[in-house]
Amino acid sequence: MEAARPVLGTGRVADYIPALAAADPAAFGLALATVDGEVHGVGAWEQPFSIQSISKLFTLSLALAVGGDELWQRVGREPSGSPFNSLVQLETEHGIPRNPFINAGAVVVTDRLHSLTGDARAAVRDFLRAESGNPLLDSDSVVAASEAEHGHRNAALAHFIASYGNLENPVATVLQHYYDHCALTASCRDLALAGLFLARHGLRADGSRLLTRSEAKRINAVLLTCGTYDAAGQFAYRVGLPGKSGVGGGVLAVVPGRGTLCAWGPALDPAGNSVGAVAALDAFTTATGWSVF
Amino acid sequence: MEAARPVLGTGRVADYIPALAAADPAAFGLALATVDGEVHGVGAWEQPFSIQSISKLFTLSLALAVGGDELWQRVGREPSGSPFNSLVQLETEHGIPRNPFINAGAVVVTDRLHSLTGDARAAVRDFLRAESGNPLLDSDSVVAASEAEHGHRNAALAHFIASYGNLENPVATVLQHYYDHCALTASCRDLALAGLFLARHGLRADGSRLLTRSEAKRINAVLLTCGTYDAAGQFAYRVGLPGKSGVGGGVLAVVPGRGTLCAWGPALDPAGNSVGAVAALDAFTTATGWSVF
Amino acid sequence: MEAARPVLGTGRVADYIPALAAADPAAFGLALATVDGEVHGVGAWEQPFSIQSISKLFTLSLALAVGGDELWQRVGREPSGSPFNSLVQLETEHGIPRNPFINAGAVVVTDRLHSLTGDARAAVRDFLRAESGNPLLDSDSVVAASEAEHGHRNAALAHFIASYGNLENPVATVLQHYYDHCALTASCRDLALAGLFLARHGLRADGSRLLTRSEAKRINAVLLTCGTYDAAGQFAYRVGLPGKSGVGGGVLAVVPGRGTLCAWGPALDPAGNSVGAVAALDAFTTATGWSVF
Amino acid sequence: MEAARPVLGTGRVADYIPALAAADPAAFGLALATVDGEVHGVGAWEQPFSIQSISKLFTLSLALAVGGDELWQRVGREPSGSPFNSLVQLETEHGIPRNPFINAGAVVVTDRLHSLTGDARAAVRDFLRAESGNPLLDSDSVVAASEAEHGHRNAALAHFIASYGNLENPVATVLQHYYDHCALTASCRDLALAGLFLARHGLRADGSRLLTRSEAKRINAVLLTCGTYDAAGQFAYRVGLPGKSGVGGGVLAVVPGRGTLCAWGPALDPAGNSVGAVAALDAFTTATGWSVF
């Protein structure tokens, strides 16, 4: 937390929707969960925030757990080298999003999860509740409505994907579930616990298996190469862990075999990653040697 | 090796220069070196081949070891999401190559190493000789001349970079050293040994320190996100290790804290990575659990 | 017509909506209208067809006539160098479409005309009726509905433009009027007459002034440089006249000071221009020397 | 000239080479030549300046006159929609430059003219001398040398084209002739006379035929759609004539059947076109109605 302090508030809080713009740029929290289920924290580690794109990690994991590798015929696994909401690559690559963590990719994954489960919104929410042990964890309907209202670009992405025949459900339905995922509200504590299955090589909190060891490894690989928008190389360089960020200011990182870290600070760098959270994770991994490299 | 057999020869040997086109598409070798300096192999693991872009890993490590982080003002660390010899991103990003492992980036790194040492060619060759213990390791002048003769695209890259003021030495000089690096001839054994400093967190074969622990970690991160052209996501997904490939058919992968693997098979997939070498590394890491994730 | 015969049917009828796919690839018509209001024709010159993008010419002229040059702050005048429904340039240029004749540009022009007149659909239809003297000229509601149903890409364009704040009316409203324009049904005769104001330097059929001489000249310039998708250079080279094509197979060309030509043949080349209509215009202008150059 | 006065000096003189940077931003000249060979002028209309890209018009005309339409297999005719020295489109379109007036295209045309005549430099210079009646017209060797010295980007373009097999002569040879063309020094008077063959539908000053009527028409079409870099649409809109500009500040425009206009003012707009020359041509064509539309 000391490491994050100097940079807190130096970035810019996401302001494309009013609900996010109200966040305190100087807020900060950090939680550390270990594979045995223990969790510790500093700062505002129990304060709920909007998880935004961190939800993409759970949507992907559930879609793979339920439906398997067929997903990869509809979405790629390569870093995008472009901003997270770019349409350019989508056009070049004929409606196949580059990876599941850019918005276009997450829309496709949400569509698939919805087809597989009948209710993508509930699938992700229920999983987060179960893993975090927080039965009150839910979507913020004000945030979701605000996303939809200011969501012309995501609507453009979804229609564009649909124009290539890469959506199974109606655009409006998919977007609604997508926005509900982004609007989930959780704390660093909740998210650190919810992400532990990736540190446990696929095992859930109750010991049941969500993913095979190989699948868990592979999701970690996609996180490391694609999890932090077009700053994945920078994040790998500084932090050296698989991780997923959200414009709500959260970053969830995985230390395979050991545990998870979730840091939060609403002020963002130009690539959309939390300035404070990345600095804290950088300092923590440098100090502890917790890195995959 | 059994894992690689079914796919050997299913790709296409690099044929842009005659010297490479002559390689046997069914050839295969694999070497495993451990951090204590032991090395084992199967197949043609002691047969020299053209290391090509694997040289970029050594050029980068030496430029950082000698000159430090200033290099990153002249070259980025993000995956390119484009073919390895693309000029598009170079133009968009005003002459700053996306990362040190695309051709444009390696030209800049070679330029810097040449400014730092006075002889980029000798610096890389001598390092490989010392680490591999093979005093005969050298560039193949026929291959280097052939590269230069068919090198209009690399000349275009270099002139383009120079037009942005991002080269210190004359274009012709930089290209000559660049081609000599690519034309270095080494075996799986040589390369596995030469790459061990990255598994040893920065320590050379003689125990001296080339890089700090943090620097070694960071090079591994760049390798994982950018080391295999625009298939870095795919390689991370399948193999889960930092690695660097070359169109000569070699792939050198690092298992931090444990050792290195170097596989070789001249037939390439469309992204320019060895079909056989990647299959062998995939099988090996799946069987042994040697992965960073 | 003899010139067009050899190529009739060599292209491919637009098939993205069923209503267009049913057109006879061998159909052909050509009308010639002179500035004094006379009109002659050969072949199926009185057979109505779907005017599609030819409507963009009328939407633009009316938006400029009613609202003046302010339009050019929301849409450019440069050739696109990209397919007519590309999103790439829209992104690069921050929601300002390159010109009024690509789909994105026409959506913006429709939006403006709707704001200016309160009913963009009626404005264009009534103008065409008045100039052609055909009171029955109307939109084909089946075609309009079919466009909307298969219009994910146009919906993507419109939402994307809206995301940059470059739409004043709701996306759904603008698209509805846009589709109704495209679904207007008219014959070569009707269109040749309706376009005469551009040959008459701005004067309508009844002698009243729609545009100043300078405005008419300028619309002709935009037609010549941008009127035939990404084949504008090719059309200028072969035909040498300002012109606008539609995927219904029509092409309307202007001979300033002299008259208009409208040719029709449903089979299209890969750029979306009628094979037969362009061949006929090429032959006609070569034979008569009717060219602006 | 009065029309140009307010804007003279408001742009920026080309400064990529010292020889051009020394030009007086407030200088201005305008010449008007009629098809019967008369020429009139105002301001510094007899002062020689560096014709730069205006040479591309003559290179193209001669390559077509000598070698015919085969040229179009090696270079396109579409507007580029990108800056004149962009490499992006060259990559997308596999080494076929978009049109003969971007630098890449002019390099290919120079290569072809050199193959056809044995001396591209002499061919263009001698043609300009003959048509202008100015036997002293020549290249400025200081400018040519300066272009070569600062020509990394053009060298990149040429090597890139060569990498696709689209050059017949050595890169160094082609560039030398290309730079000599650009370094030709001529006055508004000289250029207006030298361009008259395009106003005379292909006839030279001595009455002999350089191009067929159809070829002359077609070159005018390419000029109008592609002659002023990525501002061709804007130039067509304002001036309404085929024209070619150069970064030396000259613009040569053709009024088919009537004559030519050559204006000069060294200060450039951001697209590389002379601010004063374009303003003067705009005012002249508006006042006289000399426009092709």
TrEMBL record, chains A, B, C, D:
<feature type="binding site">
    <location>
        <position position="103"/>
    </location>
    <ligand>
        <name>substrate</name>
    </ligand>
</feature>
<dbReference type="GO" id="GO:0006543">
    <property type="term" value="P:L-glutamine catabolic process"/>
</dbReference>
<comment type="similarity">
    <text>Belongs to the glutaminase family.</text>
</comment>
<dbReference type="InterPro" id="IPR012338">
    <property type="entry name" value="Beta-lactam/transpept-like"/>
</dbReference>
<feature type="binding site">
    <location>
        <position position="147"/>
    </location>
    <ligand>
        <name>substrate</name>
    </ligand>
</feature>
<feature type="binding site">
    <location>
        <position position="53"/>
    </location>
    <ligand>
        <name>substrate</name>
    </ligand>
</feature>
<feature type="binding site">
    <location>
        <position position="178"/>
    </location>
    <ligand>
        <name>substrate</name>
    </ligand>
</feature>
<protein>
    <recommendedName>
        <fullName>Glutaminase</fullName>
        <ecNumber>3.5.1.2</ecNumber>
    </recommendedName>
</protein>
<feature type="binding site">
    <location>
        <position position="229"/>
    </location>
    <ligand>
        <name>substrate</name>
    </ligand>
</feature>
<dbReference type="InterPro" id="IPR015868">
    <property type="entry name" value="Glutaminase"/>
</dbReference>
<comment type="subunit">
    <text>Homotetramer.</text>
</comment>
<dbReference type="GO" id="GO:0006537">
    <property type="term" value="P:glutamate biosynthetic process"/>
</dbReference>
<feature type="binding site">
    <location>
        <position position="154"/>
    </location>
    <ligand>
        <name>substrate</name>
    </ligand>
</feature>
<feature type="binding site">
    <location>
        <position position="247"/>
    </location>
    <ligand>
        <name>substrate</name>
    </ligand>
</feature>
<keyword id="KW-0007">Acetylation</keyword>
<keyword id="KW-0378">Hydrolase</keyword>
<dbReference type="GO" id="GO:0004359">
    <property type="term" value="F:glutaminase activity"/>
</dbReference>
<dbReference type="Pfam" id="PF04960">
    <property type="entry name" value="Glutaminase"/>
</dbReference>
